[in-house]
Amino acid sequence: MSKRCAKVRHGFHQAKWDEELIFELHKPGERGLAVAPVEPGIAAEVGDGLGALPPALVRRTQPLLPEVGQMRVLKHFLRLSQENLGADLNVDIGQGTCTMKYSPKINDALAASPRLADLHPLQDPATVQGTLEVMHSLDLYLREISGMDRFSLQPASGSSAILNMVSIIQAYHRDRGEAQTRDEMITTIFSHPSDAAAAAVKGYKVVTLMQGPDGLPTVEDLRRAVGPRTAGLLITNPEDTGIYNPSVQEFVRLVHEAGGLCGYDQANANGIMGVTRAADCGFDLCFFNLHKTFSTPHGCGGPAGGALGVTMALADYLPVPLVVREGERYRLDYGVPRSIGKTRAFYGTVQVALRAYAWIRALGADGLREVSAVAVLNNNYLLEKIKRIRGASAPYAEGHRRIEQVRYSWEQLHRDTGVTTEDISLRMADYGMHLWSSHHPFIVPQPFTVEPTESYAKEELDEYVAVLEQVASEAYADPQLVRTAPHRSVCRRVDPAPFDDPGRWAVTWRLWQRKAK
Amino acid sequence: MPEQDYRGHPYIPNSVPAVKAEMLAEIGARSVDELYQDIPDRLRFKGRMAIPEAIPAESLLRRHVEGILARNTSCAEATSFLGAGCYNHYVPAICDEVSRRSEFLTAYAGEPYADFGRFQVLWEYQSLMAELLDMDICNVPTYDGFQASSTALRMAGRYTGRTRALVAGTVSPDKLLAIRNYCEPVMAVAVQEPDPGTGLLDLARLEASLGPNTAAVYFENPGYLGGLESRGRAVADLAHARGALLVVGVDPNSLGVLAPPSQYGADLVCGDIQTLGNHMSFGGGMGGFIACRDEEKLVLEFPSRLFGISTTETPGEYGFGDVAYERTSFAHREQGKEFVGTAAALHGITAGVYLALMGPQGMRDLGVHLLQKAQYLARRLGALPGVKAPALAAPFYKEFAVDFNGTGRTVAELNRRLLEHGIFGGKDLSADFPDLGQAALYCVTEQVAQEEIDRFITILSAILGGN
């Protein structure tokens, strides 16, 4: 057992309740919630309500939902919550690319206000002026941050915003009679998988530029890829490696020359607010993930927000409706002439937009710049420290600074010890930390991605590095300890075999009962 | 502004100048600006973003935002008859308690060890939905019911190898925009006009429209105008006879009393979970589900995460993980099924809590309540001179179209007058459904009391009487 180090929580053990499945708490007759009966006057007039339905419509057997008393339901879900490591509870910088920054509690409180939570989307605009103002103001602020001319808050996430960019690019070419001939979308291997996948959803052949020797896609490769079949380019910059591509303007120019449009995946713009802007680089479209750069909580995977910005030339393609201001009044405008239609019900995740608005207002222009400056400072500080860890490296761009994150490698450690990134990730859980590898495919061998954001104090960054050092040293000294991790998390290693076996996979309780031996 | 001038902000601990200096020394850089060396000067933004000065304290931020929100009037402060895809149902306190827990609210994408809770709770959500829907498989939520319908149709296209979807009955015009947008250009979406008298689908025309390239027949139960389709089995038989799948959109909140589509032959069932314990949030509270039977070929067409249960090295311990991950875009980019990413997991967690609380009896009681209350509202409305409720000859669940043509008034005018009394009248259908003339879609939830309905009728009666 290693010695107690002030920065490493050797005594950590995650909550482990050995909690049952909710169905195992079933006791016939118990109830979690009583539903109000209708008033006697209504029942007297219409009877049981079921009599008005044709028999074929009536459910004959009740659903086999569990019957559980209220406090036990509460306890069950609170125990499960304790078995989950939220960003509020750890130094959550190991989920790189995810921008796990602080989501201010005040913003959650504001979003929970009945004057937002209990608003129906089809209310008379006169009764929702406050919310429309917030949405409009957020649009204006995002224009400043990106240099773009118009934003839609409708896309529900980054991937949805990518799809919207692709839809707009497609509609644009259709209007020029080129939808059939321009059937290729170019992206890069270190851009998010959805940049490729959403393009394929719209029928495009995806051309993926691989990384050059310095980790970046090369202008030469782009020249070979671009041509009359090019519909557009979807690119992240900095890419997941955290390396800023200084040739990005040349990329945009080449695609424009070929008649394509350029969409900037700014899901994560946390390192460059107020430093460089999409429009100034010539991009036609961009988007921001409100749940990343703009601090809204990730909710175990949503609700999120993908604010989509375009230049004036493309504003007529945005999804409907847009929020417009007329004098002191705001309204929803469905008269967007070439609109791609709708991408989500109503107007987007408005409770997310409100939080992003409040976050921007708490920081102002200077604060946003400071966010990026400190995020970059923190990242380069970590880079210095992590490079020194035995077995770790930061491939590509030796001697260069990185922007908001770094994709590191345990290749050396793996070669020396046989321990993998996955093993290390699971061992990190024993110290109350996350460590994420990379999107697929793993271009960087044994990858791990760290993104410190601006939210963590230097001492917390030091703690994270100390835990990485601890686990790396364990890998060299006692690889079996790491290979069998986690030891102090919620459960031990899971048998993955059923997950890919149709005869055994159990996505639901009823399948588990049917298939488990 | 030079960074050394910036004063500490509560959200940015390392903005303390001494800390910055220490970190820069560690890095071997003179300034933060130096860290941006790879960004060419011509791309550097030299101006200042026109964003208001920071609000300097949390107390002032709260006052500012609450001041803006004070310009809203919520459904809690009014009597609302609005539905049309988003519903003012009661949200149990425990749904809020769980969905606001830091551990769930601020987590994201960790492994099923440190983030075990997220996997179990979403697996339980899938399982509870499966019982409600009487289906084997349900996904981790997608964005909303629009996306669920769109993806279900594309799944049907891949499953059958066909490229045409047939939409029948009444569907929200907005949802149709989203479906068309999503299916373009891979699948053609043909819309079949509903029966004008009922708003339900026209079986004879449906049969004639089915072709060898039809991948799916899609309808909703209840339909957008509230009508309930009792001929689901006949529709399923027609679709299946031509090798097409039946995809049914459903309000899960109705399934305590209404037969789930799987029981009349649906292959894919989809819809929105906003009605299961999620606040409306101006339409932000949506979340989509897709369910099907446990058929490998169909399951492998899901783009979404599907969490599965397994065992661990410790006897008797549960473990969780991703089922058939290789089908996703996370695994294979453009070779995966559509795409997957962050969507609406927290709304799924909340819906799971809701179903666990409600149990079979709660869902039944709720369904009966809504049937009774909607029928009461329809009777009261229908008793007013010139008002026909429901406008269409079809049974309904909690909402129905109301025909105001006989009153000589427009819905817009009536709703304006009702608003003066703190009443949100039903959604005006006159623009989207011109054949109905002046009609509105009225909805009740358990949040509208009988006395509010009676007051509304009194006021509407006075308005119609010219007072």
What labels would you give this structure?
heterodimer; A: 517 residues; alpha/beta; Aspartate Aminotransferase, domain 2; seven-stranded mixed beta sheet; two-stranded antiparallel ribbon; 15 helices; 11 strands; B: 467 residues; Aspartate Aminotransferase, domain 1; 3 domains; three-stranded antiparallel beta sheet; 14 helices; 14 strands; 36% helix
Q: What does it look like?
A:
The complex is a heterodimer of chains A (517) and B (467). Chain A is of the alpha/beta class and 517 residues long. Chain A has a domain at 110-362: Aspartate Aminotransferase, domain 2, CATH 3.40.640.10. Helix content of chain A is 34%, strand content 10%. In chain A, α6 (158-175) crosses α7 and α10 crosses α13 (458-477). The model of chain A has no long low-confidence stretch (mean pLDDT 96). Chain B has helices at 17-27, 58-69, 93-99, 102-105, 116-133, 145-160, 173-183, 203-209, 232-241, 296-299, 329-332, 345-382, 411-419, 450-464; strands at residues 79-80, 137-138, 164-167, 188-191, 214-221, 245-250, 268-272, 288-292, 307-311, 318-322, 399-403, 423-424, 427-428, 439-443. By secondary structure, chain B is α/β, with parallel strands linked by helices. Chain B has 3 domains: 1-43, no CATH class; 76-87 and 361-464, Aspartate Aminotransferase, domain 1 (Alpha-Beta Complex), CATH 3.90.1150.10; 93-355, Type I PLP-dependent aspartate aminotransferase-like (Major domain) (Aspartate Aminotransferase, domain 2, 3-Layer(aba) Sandwich). Chain B starts with 16 loop residues before the first helix and ends with a helix. The mean pLDDT of chain B is 96. The chains are: A alpha/beta (517), B alpha/beta (467). The interface between A and B is large, with 220 and 215 residues.
